[in-house]
Specification:
Blueprint: E1 4-10, E2 16-20, E3 24-29, H1 31-39, E4 46-50, E5 55-57, E6 63-70, E7 80-84
Antiparallel strand pairs: 1-6, 2-5, 2-7, 3-4, 3-6
Length: about 80
Amino acid sequence: MNYLHYEFNIGPSDAVEVTLDKQANVRLLDDDNYNKYRRGEKHTYHGGLAKVSPARVSPPHYGHWHLVIDLGGYTGRVNASVRLV
């Protein structure tokens, strides 16, 4: 599985802004769901398919979060820049 991965300790007053060079899936996952994602299991996340850049996503509560950017199984590469706002 090919994806970009970033980690943050953030809360609901924070937003992660993702600038993409093409549409991609932008997923914000807690530790448990990130591990399920890595194993290819069913998982829940915040975000989704970002067709417009930049995309923003915020967590529902404070904690350790994983931001994953992928092409949903399609071939190719995506370039992204990520920042907290």
